[in-house]
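dumping this here so i dont lose it
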């Protein structure tokens, strides 16, 4: 991005100023929506009957013209959920959406599954081969970014909750990054956005009020409109959508300012500069940003946020080194302090770093438990299970991992109890269950059916 290069450095800090809501062009102020959403199609792949895809085809397909497509790779292969999240945006902006039910983290057949997904979709639907896009969540974002950067098959990608290796760049795709304010990968995604800017890539960064999770539907309305802007900002439908988006965002910025929240108003303006880069709306928002830059209150808050960032990075390193060296009592005291800091303020600016730290410890526990299962290390498993319970009590993955461990020990009753807990907390990844052959054989048909139905119905 060539406009106002120094904005990116300021934006890295300003983005922290998000509070309890996030902005979307589609749902900013008093929006009514009468879009009719079509049924999602479940299609078994001809290349391998064990693989399947979920497909959303917008009503515009009835006009028998070629449509852009976005292929989705979710880290847990939750194909139906992913398509449901993108369906409204796809209907509004005329995209076909295709998601795999099998492409998940660490799947050794990932490349074959993705190839099968593309082959099946393009054999059945009227897809514009010049407008293929990718979308990925977490590990799926890394894969989507790699494909977009290394091949010339894809025009762009939505990277959710993770980044990609820009060292692999052989093309110039349009990249729309998305991350939750409380996501443990928050800084990674912000750094990626800055590096993309230095390399001259077309890019935009969207932050929403959430953690390490698949983004809400409204985020994808921004992303698909942005892709349409990058493809042809002069198209009549795109110009109309941009005009509506600009008016709503302008109204939001004004409302935030009048409510006395200059910092959030400032952040929304920075996002608008990035979103409308290269269009006739960019200049208007750039002028607003220039007016904010001399505000002493803003500068004071930026200094405080920089201090918080440095502390967060130091604690991450300390916690990483403490995983195998500190006692349970030490962790209990340390996490009690961190959790207290997340509960004592309604200000997301102050609580977000500590929520990200808890997410970081949770991720480390997940990795340690997975390793303990692989190595059949009972002592390590018990120790890290206790720590996982302290830092992320309601995470369904914790109980799923316990189910895997008890399956390995052939303790069926314990397995069933923990699998039921995981399901009750929202565990829906059928692919993760099927990947563990021992667990899959020991689970009851009722439990597998519950997860199957949840996976199909999830939004």
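and the seq i came up w/
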């Amino acid at each position: 991005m060539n406009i106002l290069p120094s904005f990116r450095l300021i934006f890295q800090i300003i983005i922290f100023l998000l509070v309890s809501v996030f902005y979307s062009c589609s749902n900013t102020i008093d929006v009514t929506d009468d879009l009719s959403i079509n049924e999602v199609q479940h299609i078994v792949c001809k290349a391998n009957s064990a693989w399947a895809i979920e497909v959303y085809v917008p009503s515009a397909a009835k006009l028998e013209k070629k449509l852009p497509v976005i292929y989705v790779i979710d880290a847990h292969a939750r194909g139906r959920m992913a398509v449901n999240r993108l369906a409204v945006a796809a209907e509004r902006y005329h995209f076909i959406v295709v998601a795999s039910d099998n492409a998940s983290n660490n799947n050794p057949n990932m490349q074959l599954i993705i190839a099968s997904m593309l082959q099946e979709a393009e054999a059945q639907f009227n897809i514009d081969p010049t407008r293929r896009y990718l979308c990925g969540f977490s590990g799926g974002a890394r894969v989507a970014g790699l494909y977009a950067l290394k091949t010339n098959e894809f025009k762009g990608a939505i990277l959710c909750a993770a980044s990609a290796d820009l060292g692999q760049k052989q093309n110039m795709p349009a990249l729309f990054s998305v991350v939750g304010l409380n996501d443990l990968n928050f800084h990674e995604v912000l750094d990626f956005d800055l590096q993309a800017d230095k390399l001259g890539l077309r890019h935009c960064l969207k932050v929403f009020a959430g953690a390490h999770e698949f983004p809400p539907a409204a985020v994808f309305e921004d992303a698909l409109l942005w892709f349409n802007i990058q493809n042809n900002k002069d198209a009549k439908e795109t110009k109309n959508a941009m005009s509506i988006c600009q008016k709503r965002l302008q109204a939001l910025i004004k409302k935030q300012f009048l409510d006395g929240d200059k910092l959030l108003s400032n952040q929304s303006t920075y996002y608008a500069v990035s979103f409308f880069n290269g269009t006739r709306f960019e200049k208007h928002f750039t002028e607003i940003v220039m007016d904010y830059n001399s505000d002493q209150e803003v500068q004071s808050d930026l200094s405080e946020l920089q201090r918080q960032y440095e502390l967060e990075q130091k604690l991450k390193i300390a916690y990483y080194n403490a995983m195998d060296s500190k006692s349970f009592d030490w962790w209990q005291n340390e996490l009690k302090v961190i959790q207290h800091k997340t509960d004592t303020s309604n200000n997301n600016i102050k609580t977000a770093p500590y929520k990200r730290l808890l997410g970081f410890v949770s991720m480390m526990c997940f990795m340690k438990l997975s390793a303990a299962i692989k190595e059949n290390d009972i002592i390590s498993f018990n120790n890290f299970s206790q720590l996982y319970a302290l830092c992320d009590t309601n995470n369904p993955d914790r109980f799923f991992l316990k189910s895997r461990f008890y399956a390995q020990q052939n303790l069926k009753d314990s397995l069933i109890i923990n699998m039921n807990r995981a399901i009750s907390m929202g565990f829906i990844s059928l692919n993760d269950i099927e990947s563990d052959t021992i667990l899959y054989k020991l689970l009851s048909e009722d439990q597998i059916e519950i997860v199957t139905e949840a996976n199909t119905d999830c939004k």
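The beta strands are 41-44, 52-56, 67-74, 96-100, 127-137, 156-160, 174-180, 203-208.
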